[in-house]
Amino acid sequence: MDHKQSLSNHQALAPYKQAIARYVRASMALRGMRYGDLAQALAERGISMTTENLRSKVSKCMFSADLLAAIIDALSVEDSAMPEILKQARELQDQGLNTEQERS
């Protein structure tokens, strides 16, 4: 893959990353969870992470699909996670398209 395609992929994936980070933070807030609580819930599943490391991963949305699945499980949001993440991602994509059209 060339550099141009890599940049294009990065831009195309940005709404998904933003939607995942927003969803995780919103789910934590709705449950009154802090990053320490989430780290503890992950530890109960055998996944050891510091609070700081977890906060960094969520804010940058730089974690693997298996960690995302574990976070979804720890938050007990398996029924709503994917539909809500995709809904948010589509809204972000639409906002991006609208912004591009306004610039034209």
Descriptive terms for the model:
104 residues, mainly alpha, 78% helix
Explain what you see.
This protein has helices at 3-30, 35-43, 51-60, 65-75, 81-103. The chain is an all-alpha fold. α1 packs across α5 and α2 packs across α3 (51-60). It starts with a helix and ends with a helix. The model has no long low-confidence stretch (mean pLDDT 92).
* Number of helices, where a helix is a run of at least 4 consecutive DSSP H or I residues: 5
What structural class do helix, strand and pairing data support?
Answer: mainly alpha
> Hey, roughly how much beta strand do the residues contain?
under 5%
Report the principal-axis shape.
Answer: globular
**What share of residues is helical?**
over 70%
Distance between the termini: 29 Å
List the helices and strands and how they pair.
Layout: H1 3-30, H2 35-43, H3 51-60, H4 65-75, H5 81-103
Helix pairs in contact: 1-5, 2-3
Summarize the structure.
The chain is mostly helical and 104 residues long. It is built from 5 helices and no strands.
